[in-house]
């Protein structure tokens, strides 16, 4: 029994069957990659997991509870954090404030009227945020305005914001999309380090095969809205079905 | 001190000092001198600055922090005034119950209007608040005449019940007071031809304004204030960080509505009548202009904006053609008439033109408002006339700073 169980999930947009009968099981403390060509339904699937989309059929169980019909912030409070394709951070705020917000969210829930408290007095939360920042190597940037950083640093910050909530499941949506090679490698190193140091389950959607094969324990290949194969990276590499999905039908020359 | 850090405490003490000495600071010119008409130290103007300062500070909690631009905040100002006047009519001329009721009632209205309006954001939110405010205005003007006395406005009358005061009342209309001290009583001090007026009304407003300002500082520095800035910055990320932006924005809306109600209650406490005009959309626009002129999202900006606008409104509108002629009588006749004609466009009735030009210049050259101007002057004084480029800009809110480093360092 995995921490995330997706059973028979289907989603139709008008005439397009984006997802048809997806079954997926993500096990605790593994890195599970979902790959597939453009339009395979990867992002649709992810959006169904975090409450952005409601699937037409099927069920999504997380940690024994259904996530369907819940709002994104409720699903986050259950223990799922998501990193977006383009880094979603609080650009107007400083790096440290960016870190404090998830700390407050974790401790106080979706809403609390803490209008007469002082941030400076929350020593536990500040220590926690600083520890996380130093773990990802950004402590010296704590007073920087988040929007002024490079894309790689924004990604790093976003991952740190998710990790400081100690999620049970971390969802990464193309974490290296549009990044320079150096930033991509930095991000891979960061994720490897996270995987080694923490008990965390990661689901990752990615185009970049280099990223997938350096991180994943299991890989699911999605094509035209249905899972094609699920296996270990080594077995996926030479799989004929995967080649077919990515390159089109093999032709006899 | 007061739960603030050292910098904020100093800041608050300076604000308190400036506020308490306003009657002296705003009266820099000797009586009878040519510049005496620029003196702003009379109670009516100072009270207005304090009251509209409160209004703008409250508005800024919503607009400056969450970025939601309400175009209907005057509705809460009007509702506050009506509530306070009803309290004066029914219970007592002591202003405290009236002001409390003003805050409660406008808070309730803000909760209802905010709940509906906050379903949308951006321009749609602004239009919704504008629509609600115009509805309030129209209802006060016509449908709700029994409650609001329509276009005449709600006034005191001799036969009002005034349950607590009836026994001690004379045959003339009573005046608003605080525990027996009338709001309109004042003490005049004549020092070297400078006349300083210290009035109960102004000091009452000033004390409340300081309290309101203190609450705003605490709010700005609290986790709640940080969440409101997060709403402005990225609601998407907020949702996926396990936070619900809706109650945060609604709370900010209600708080700023209560500030507006407090300001409305104070207006009624200074002059116990309430008219529907107070809710008109131009009044809503005025507080937007005050906040942007002073500097949205800053603590002191809205107060500064309120001060500048109320000063322009009261002082520039007093300068008529005969005053201008007395200024320029030394010019040759033809030129004098020309100069007076030009200046007359910007003074008297034309003071709005002065306001418009000021606003245009500030928004164009100081997007952070007058506060940004003051900051620049301070930096200039501190650092000398150093050449600056965009990378040195200290204001990330209005000029997102491009990074100096290259990607990946």
Automatic annotation (TrEMBL), chain A:
The keyword Membrane does not apply. Residues 4-249 form the ABC transporter domain. SMART domains: AAA (SM00382). The keyword Transport applies. It comes from the Bacteria. It holds the Pfam family ABC_tran. Keywords: ATP-binding, Nucleotide-binding, Transport. GO terms for molecular function: ATP binding; ATP hydrolysis activity. GO terms for cellular component: plasma membrane. PROSITE patterns: ABC_TRANSPORTER_2 (PS50893). PANTHER family: CONSERVED COMPONENT OF ABC TRANSPORTER FOR NATURAL AMINO ACIDS, CONSERVED COMPONENT OF ABC TRANSPORTER FOR NATURAL AMINO ACIDS-RELATED. This is High-affinity branched-chain amino acid transport ATP-binding protein. It comes from Celeribacter baekdonensis B30. The lineage of its organism: Bacteria, Pseudomonadati, Pseudomonadota, Alphaproteobacteria, Rhodobacterales.
From TrEMBL, chain B:
Residues 389-409 have a biased composition (Basic and acidic residues). It is a multi-pass membrane protein. InterPro entries: ABC_transp_permease (IPR001851), LivM-like (IPR043428). It comes from the Bacteria. Residues 382-409 are annotated as: Disordered. GO terms for cellular component: plasma membrane. Pfam families: BPD_transp_2. This is Inner-membrane translocator. One of its GO terms (molecular function) is branched-chain amino acid transmembrane transporter activity. Its main location: membrane. The chain crosses the membrane at residues 50-69, 98-116, 123-144, 195-217, 247-267, 287-312, 350-371. Keywords: Cell membrane, Membrane, Transmembrane, Transmembrane helix. It is found in: Cell membrane.
């Amino acid at each position: 029994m995995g921490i995330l169980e997706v059973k028979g999930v289907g989603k139709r947009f008008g005439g397009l069957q984006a997802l048809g009968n997806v079954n997926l099981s993500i096990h605790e403390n593994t890195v599970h990659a979902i790959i597939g060509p453009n339009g395979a339904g990867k992002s649709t699937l992810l959006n169904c997991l975090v409450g952005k989309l409601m699937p037409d059929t099927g069920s999504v169980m997380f940690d024994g509870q259904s996530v369907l019909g819940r709002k994104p912030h409720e699903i986050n409070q259950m223990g799922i954090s998501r990193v977006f394709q383009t880094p979603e951070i609080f650009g107007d705020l400083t790096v440290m404030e960016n870190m404090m917000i998830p700390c407050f969210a974790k401790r106080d829930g979706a809403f609390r009227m803490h209008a007469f408290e002082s941030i400076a007095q929350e020593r536990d939360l500040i220590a926690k945020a600083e520890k996380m920042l130093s773990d990802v190597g950004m402590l010296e940037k704590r007073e920087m305005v988040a929007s002024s950083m490079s894309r790689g640093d924004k990604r790093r910050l976003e991952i740190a914001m998710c990790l400081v909530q100690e999620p049970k499941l971390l969802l990464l949506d193309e974490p290296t999309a549009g990044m320079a090679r150096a930033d991509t490698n930095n991000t891979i190193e960061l994720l490897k380090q996270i995987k080694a140091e923490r008990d965390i389950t990661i689901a990752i959607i990615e185009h970049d095969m280099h990223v997938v094969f350096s991180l994943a324990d299991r890989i699911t290949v999605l094509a035209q809205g249905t899972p094609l194969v699920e296996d270990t990276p080594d077995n996926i590499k030479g799989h004929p079905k995967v080649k077919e999905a990515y390159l089109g039908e093999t032709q006899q020359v | 001190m007061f739960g603030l850090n050292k910098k904020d405490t100093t800041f608050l003490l300076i604000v308190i000092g400036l506020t308490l000495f306003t009657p002296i600071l705003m009266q820099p010119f000797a009586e009878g001198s040519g510049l005496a008409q620029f003196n702003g130290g009379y109670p009516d103007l100072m009270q207005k600055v304090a009251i509209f300062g409160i209004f703008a500070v409250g508005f800024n909690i919503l607009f400056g922090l969450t970025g939601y631009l309400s175009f209907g905040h005057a509705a809460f100002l009007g509702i506050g005034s009506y509530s306070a006047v009803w309290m004066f009519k029914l219970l007592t001329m002591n202003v405290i119950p009236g002001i409390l009721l003003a805050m409660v009632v406008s808070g309730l209205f803000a909760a209802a209007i905010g709940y509906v309006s906050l379903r949308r954001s951006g321009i749609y939110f602004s239009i919704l608040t504008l629509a609600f405010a115009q509805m309030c205005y129209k209802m006060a003007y016509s449908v709700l005449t029994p409650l609001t006395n329509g276009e005449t406005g709600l006034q005191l009358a001799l036969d009002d019940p005034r349950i607590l005061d009836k026994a001690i009342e004379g045959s003339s209309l009573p005046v608003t007071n605080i525990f027996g001290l009338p709001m309109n009583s004042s003490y005049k001090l004549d020092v070297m031809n400078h006349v300083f007026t210290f009035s109960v009304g102004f000091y009452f407003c000033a004390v409340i304004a300081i309290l309101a300002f203190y609450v705003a500082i605490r709010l700005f520095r609290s986790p709640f204030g940080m969440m409101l800035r997060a709403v402005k910055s990225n609601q998407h990320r907020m949702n996926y960080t396990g936070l619900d932006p809706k109650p945060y924005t609604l709370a900010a809306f209600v708080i700023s509505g209560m500030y507006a109600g407090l300001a409305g209650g104070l207006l009624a406490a200074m002059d116990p009548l309430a008219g529907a005009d107070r809710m008109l959309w131009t009044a809503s626009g005025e507080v937007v202009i005050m906040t942007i002129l002073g500097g949205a999202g800053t603590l002191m900006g809205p107060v500064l904006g309120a001060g500048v606008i109320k000063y322009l409104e009261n002082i520039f509108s007093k300068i008529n053609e005969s005053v201008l002629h007395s200024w320029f009588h030394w010019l040759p006749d033809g030129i004098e008439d020309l100069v007076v004609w030009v200046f007359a466009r910007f003074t008297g009735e034309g003071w709005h033109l002065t306001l418009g030009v000021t606003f245009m210049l500030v928004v164009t050259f100081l997007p952070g408002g007058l506060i940004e101007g003051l900051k620049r002057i301070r930096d200039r004084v501190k650092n000398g006339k150093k050449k600056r480029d965009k990378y040195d800009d200290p204001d990330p809110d209005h000029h997102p700073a491009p990074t100096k480093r290259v990607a990946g360092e």
